């Protein structure tokens, strides 16, 4: 799991092992409360790629919902 701060939110990129690949997902929190979480965003052969996809989803969600 990788985490970052983005526009006053904490964001998380997850890589969920599924056999020889990783399912990507993302989570957004603010003030210790979950704001939103994705479903499976796609499958990747590299753990880091799945985590980065989750972080990218979270940044895009924040941009869409905050008029940026």
Domain module count: 1
Major sheet description: 5 strands, antiparallel
Global geometry: elongated
Q: Please compute the radius of gyration using only Cα atoms.
A: 12 Å
Nearest-integer average pLDDT: 95
SS field, number of helical segments: 1
What is the end-to-end distance?
26 Å
Indicate the structural class.
alpha+beta
Given as residue ranges, the uncertain stretches (5+ residues, pLDDT < 50) are none
Q: What's the number of extended β-strand segments?
A: 5
- In terms of DSSP E residues, the strand content is over 45%
Give the ordered list of helices and strands.
Answer: EEEEEH
Helix content percent band:
25-40%
How does the SSE layout of this entry go?
Layout: E1 2-6, E2 9-18, E3 21-30, E4 33-37, E5 42-44, H1 47-65
Antiparallel strand pairs: 1-2, 2-3, 3-4, 3-5
Describe the structure.
This is Transposase. The structure is a single chain. With 68 residues, the protein is of the alpha+beta class. The protein has one domain. The protein contains 1 helix and 5 strands, in the order E-E-E-E-E-H. Strands 1, 2, 3, 4 and 5 form a 5-stranded antiparallel sheet that branches. The N and C termini lie far apart (26 Å).
List keywords for this structure.
68 residues, alpha+beta, five-stranded antiparallel sheet, 1 helix, 5 strands, elongated, Transposase
């Amino acid at each position: 799991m990788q985490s970052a701060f983005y526009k006053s939110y904490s964001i998380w990129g997850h890589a969920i092992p599924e056999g020889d690949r990783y399912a990507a997902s993302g989570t957004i929190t603010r003030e210790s409360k979950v704001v939103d979480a994705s479903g499976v965003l796609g499958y990747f052969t590299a753990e880091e790629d799945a985590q980065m996809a989750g972080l990218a989803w979270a940044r895009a969600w924040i941009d869409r919902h905050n008029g940026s």
